Amino acid sequence: MAEFAWSFLSKRALNEVANLGDHVRRSSRGPTGREPVRAVRHHRAIFISDVHLGTRGCKAEQLLDFLERNQCQTLYLVGDIVDGWRLKYRWFWPAAHSGVVHAILRKIDSGTRVIYVPGNHDECFRAYCGREVAGIEIVREAVHETADGRQLLVIHGDHFDAVIAYAKWLAHLGDWAYTLALQLNEWCHLARRALGLRYWSLSAYLKQKVKNALEYICSFEEAVARDVRARGFDGVVCGHIHHAAIRTIAGVVYHNDGDWVESCTALVEDARGHLEILRWANAGSRTLPVPAEHAADDVPAAVPA
C-alpha cells in the first residue's frame, strides 16, 4: 500500500489530470460561452474529511465546486480522503476524482498550506507521516491555533473506534454494507433529480432510524472529548463517523467536519476564530451554513465507513 500511496502522488499521476482544468472551465460556461461570475469566499482555515475518492459514493463534483469557490490560508485534510480499502480490490477513478486532487494542488501553488492527517481508509499514507509530498504536509495529528488563541487537536478519530481497533474484519464487513447503502442512495438521487427534486440522502435517513447508530455516535464523541480534555486542548476537530457537529462535551468543544459521500459538509474558520459547518448540497449551489447549536441535528447522521 505504501507503493500505491507514492504512485498516487507521483508525476505520472499528476500528468493524467494536467488537462482537467480546461475541461472544468469549459463545462462551467453558460450558453454564451462566457464563464459565469463565481463568488469566492475566504476563510482562515478549512477542514474536510471522509471524501472517499475512489468510490462511487464520493461526491467529487460537489467537493470540486466547493474547493474552487472557497479559499483559505490553511486546508486540513482530516483523513479518508482516498479510499484505499476499495481501490485495493477494485479500481474506480473518474475524471472528477482527479479534479479534486488537481484543485488541492492548485491551492498549494497559490500559497495555501495543506496538512494531511490520514485516516483508516487511507492508512497507507501514514507511512509518510513527518514528510512533505507534493507540497502536502503529512502528519499523524496536528494542532490548530484559532485566531482567538484556542488550541484544537486535529485527528481523524478512527483510533477511538473499538471496531476498527479490535475487530478490523467487522469494520470491512460494515464497509461493504455501507457501500451497498450508498448505491441505493445514488439510485434514489437519480430518480429524484429526474423529477426535479432536491438532493436527499436515503442512506442517512435509514441510519438515523437505527438506535444503535445514534448510540455509537454519542459514545464516539464522548470518548474523543474525554481524551482531548485530558491532553489539555481547548477542543478537537475530527471526522470518521460522517456526522457533522459542533458541541461542547466534557468542557471541550467537539467539532466534526462531516463527509463528502452524504452530507457534503466542511468545517470553516473565519478571521475572528469563529468556526461553523457549511453544507454544500449541490454543485453550483449557495453555501448553507449550519448554526453550531443545531449542527448535530440539521446534518444527516451516518455511521463510519
How does this structure look, described?
The structure is a single chain. The protein has about 300 residues and is α/β, with parallel strands linked by helices. It has a single domain (about 1-300), classed as Metallo-dependent phosphatases (Purple Acid Phosphatase, chain A, domain 2, 4-Layer Sandwich), CATH 3.60.21.10. It contains eleven helices and 13 strands. Strands 4-5-3-2-1-11-12-13 form an eight-stranded mixed beta sheet. Helix 4 (about 60-70) links the parallel strand 1 and strand 2 (about 70-75). Helix 4 runs parallel beside helix 6. The radius of gyration is 18 Å and the shape is globular.
Strand order of the largest sheet: 4-5-3-2-1-11-12-13
Q: Tell me the strand percentage band.
A: 15-25%
Helix coverage percent: 25-40%
The SSE order reads HHHEHEHHEEEEEHHHHEEEEEEH
**What best-fitting shape do the alpha-carbon axes yield?**
globular
The CATH class name reads Alpha Beta
Supply database-style keywords.
single chain, 305 residues, alpha/beta, Purple Acid Phosphatase, chain A, domain 2, five-stranded mixed beta sheet, 13 strands, 37% helix, globular
Spell out the blueprint of helices and strands.
Layout: H1 2-8, H2 11-16, H3 20-27, E1 41-48, H4 60-69, E2 70-77, H5 84-87, H6 95-109, E3 113-116, E4 131-133, E5 136-138, E6 142-145, E7 151-154, H7 162-166, H8 168-194, H9 202-208, H10 211-230, E8 235-238, E9 245-249, E10 252-256, E11 265-269, E12 275-279, E13 288-290, H11 295-298
Parallel strand pairs: 1-2, 2-3, 3-5, 7-8, 8-10
Antiparallel strand pairs: 1-11, 4-5, 6-7, 9-10, 11-12, 12-13
